[in-house]
Input
Amino acid sequence: MENSEVDKGRRRFLIAATSVVGAVGTVAMAAPFLNSWNPSERAKAAGAPVEVNLNKIQEGQLVRVIWRKKPIWIVNRTKKMLEDLPGNDNLLRDPASEVATQQPAYAQNPLRTREGKEKYLVLIGICTHLGCSPTFRPELAPPDLGSDWKGGWYCPCHGSRFDLAGRVFKNVPAPTNLVVPVYSFKDENTIIVGLDENGEAV
Output
């Protein structure tokens, strides 16, 4: 009788202990598996907004940063560059940026920028034809681009041309203007690419 009671007690203890060890083991095995579903820190960083210090961009200069594995161009346009833009309108396919998918609503204008910040142009540096990266050509009337060239980008892959607002010229392979990504101003001297004015990442 005593042995039977001892055996039952031991059995309960062993069952409880085995259950606890099994549960701990299951959690230990499942945790790495479940964690593998979460994006890595590198993946999070690749899509994270990018801050750019505008103080380091001289007038007329283009700087490049990477956001979501895409080249982003930021140009500090000179007064002359801005003044020359309307002179391109008759040569362009979409001078008023009417194709809404090519820019956020606040950049759907001939200068393709936020109001009050016209000198800073922000573009995704990928040609809208077949994805090449156009070359920055800010010079005026170079022999290879013609006397009506007022600066912009030339795609060496298939000859597409874009002006200094990223607007596409007529009669080139690219069908639409260069894309303006979502961006906002953190302060007077800092642009954040990939963050809208509500502070939300996109």
